[in-house]
Amino acid sequence: MHSPGLSTTSAGLLSPTVLGTPPALMDRVSGERAGAGALAALREDPATRYLLLAQRSTPVVSGEDTQRLVFLSPAEVDSLGPVRVLQEIHLGRVRPPHDDAGPAPAPGDGALPAGTAVVALVLSEPLAADHPALPAGTVWRGYRESGAWLSDLESELFIEAQAIAGWHEGHGFCPRCGTPTEIEQSGWVRRCPRENVEIFPRMDPAIIVSVVGPDGRILLGGGGPADGKGHSVLAGFVDPGESLEQAVVRELGEEVAVEVDAVQYLGSQSWPFPASLMLGFTARTRSSDARPDGVEVTHARWFTREELQEAVLAGTVIIPSRLSIARNLIEHWYGGDMLEPPAPPVSVRT
Q1: Which has the least CB within 10 A, 25, 178, 179, 317?
Q2: For the whole model, what pTM was predicted?
């Protein structure tokens, strides 16, 4: 789709995506994980670290203003006792720090040094928080609860582990004949022994769009009660046979009955709830009206920057957290970080 008025670059003058997707901190080492004995070899290496995952949560230790994931050594994994392991997945190795990332972590500071192999151990259920293999103060938390407090590396590992574990949950049987599939390539492939076909992890592409009207206002909407406080940018899954830009036009027409004049890609985010790849766009429309479909979108409203900021501070409108690309799209339109309402006081029992 031609996008008049939006920025373009020639093929020889490429620039980073607008939302500034950070570089990967993990090397997926696809060649290393392909070997039949790769996982066994990692178990023999005392430098390997294991990330436990169970029912979409992982053990976390909380500090005053931070949280960190719990990584176990092979010896600590051996000490877990009789636990049911559903999958063992080689997540990769920690990349060396980039030139602008500062010095490498010092041993003992809780960070993973470059070259460390990380394996996800997916359990049928969480261990008790006071299990002797876990540090004192451990709690099991999902990514939505802990993601904002984790380091960039830990966040990347949690998302990767949750995405691949979620894929395994739905692919225990061959989609063609129903035969139980077998895990290969260190957790990254499932094979049907009857059909002799490989089944690879899948992600579901979804577009997510900040819609900007002719007067510069943004259109935010939500589901649930028509008078609900939650407002976000609009999103929808890409249908087979259509381009991303076509999906933007179709979804906005279906959900809020607006006609798109121009579309521009801004960036992407893996969102494993359960397996989405969110592809972020901004779209311009000549319309100053919106009609929610009443099913997926029950309320929609146009905001100026001042109106949205005032509503967020007053608590009458709730926008997505900074974990999500939805918030990034809103703040890209806004032109900076939006202020949050003050946190409620914490009551302390004496």
Answers
A1: 178
A2: 0.85
- CB of 207 within 8 A of CB of 235? yes
Which DSSP string do the residues of 55-107 spell out, in sequence order?
Answer: TTBEEEEE-SS-EEE-EE-HHHHHTT-S--EEEEEEEEEEPPPPTTS-SPPPT
Question: Of 91, 101, 78, which Cα lies nearest the Cα of 162?
Answer: 91
Q: Are 76 and 151 in contact (CB under 8 A)?
A: no
Place of tokens 């949280």: 67
Cis? peptide before 107, omega within 30° of 0? no
For the chain, the residue count is: 350
Q: What is the dihedral of CA 245, 248, 251, 254, to 10 degrees?
A: -90
What gap in Å lies between CA 209 and CA 232, rounded to an integer? 10
CA-CA distance, 281 to 268, in Å (whole number)?
9
pLDDT per position as a tens digit, 279-292: 999 999 988 899 99
For residue 123, the SS3 value is: strand
Residue tagged 């976390």 (tokens): 60
Can you tell me the distance from the alpha carbon of 91 to that of 57, in angstroms, rounded to the nearest whole number?
Answer: 16
Residues 162-212 pLDDT 10s: 999 999 998 999 999 999 999 999 999 999 999 999 999 989 999 999 999
- What is the DSSP pairing of strand 204-212 with strand 276-285? parallel
- Phi/psi for 221 (5° steps) reads -150, 180
Those residues with Cβ within 8 angstroms of residue 192's Cβ, 6 or more apart along the chain or in another chain: 174, 176, 177, 179, 181, 182, 199
Which pairing describes strands 85-94 and 26-27: parallel, antiparallel, or unpaired? antiparallel
Q: Is-contact 3 263, C-beta < 8 A?
A: yes
Give whole-number Cα distances, 183 to 92, 153, 165, 174, in Å. 17, 26, 12, 12
pLDDT range class, residue 350, cuts 50, 70, 90:
very low
Using CA atoms, how far apart are residues 23 and 21, in angstroms rounded to an integer?
A: 7
Distance between CA atoms of 31 and 260, rounded to whole angstroms?
A: 44
141 CB burial (10 A radius; 0-12, 13-18, 19+): buried
